[in-house]
């Protein structure tokens, strides 16, 4: 049985895909550039906002620092103001978080979403839950899959890697957990799907959020 459960945010706890899609496309349209579908963004999200901006820009524009910085700045500002217009926790997630709390299993959150945006999403979509440790991407640590922030989380909370489980929806999350010496539950309902998680070597696959409880308790 695991004693500490750490979560990714986008695609794991909260479905943010529609708001990310709308915000990036809004900014691209303002620059006169092509836009993308939600399915396109499923494969672009997860490595941080700078990587997202690199992926949506045409190659000839990507090399222009002024245009890149304009996209990064305008998207970040617009998204922070609108990041909860359409975003909601996945079905069962509030209940799973409540069950973990009632079972005495503390939780934490580690995301590649910039810290200001992470704070807004948590305050609006998961306001009823308190995480023992919650970090979005910042200058303090490299973004996932670098394990630096995970090591800080374990040091701060006092849990060992062996008694900790991480839940995420992408290969980045699997690599992140394993780099920290932690086992990973792949969230099959998320942005990337079961195949990517299995190919990346996820230790467990949760088909639905309730499966997390069975895995943590050792019943699965």
Can you tell me about this structure?
With 220 residues, the protein is α/β, with parallel strands linked by helices. 47% of the residues lie in helices and 15% in strands. The protein has 11 helices and 8 strands. The protein has helices at 17-30, 38-42, 49-56, 59-62, 65-82, 93-102, 115-125, 148-157, 171-179, 194-200, 211-217, and strands at 4-7, 14-15, 88-89, 107-114, 133-137, 164-168, 183-187, 204-206. Strands 5-4-1-6-7-8 form a 6-stranded parallel sheet, with helices on both faces. A two-stranded antiparallel ribbon has the order 2-3. Helix 1 packs across helix 5 (65-82) and helix 3 packs across helix 5. The protein is globular and about 55 Å long. The protein starts with a strand and ends with a helix. The mean pLDDT is 96.
Break the fold down into its secondary structure elements and pairings.
Blueprint: E1 4-7, E2 14-15, H1 17-30, H2 38-42, H3 49-56, H4 59-62, H5 65-82, E3 88-89, H6 93-102, E4 107-114, H7 115-125, E5 133-137, H8 148-157, E6 164-168, H9 171-179, E7 183-187, H10 194-200, E8 204-206, H11 211-217
Parallel strand pairs: 1-4, 1-6, 4-5, 6-7, 7-8
Antiparallel strand pairs: 2-3
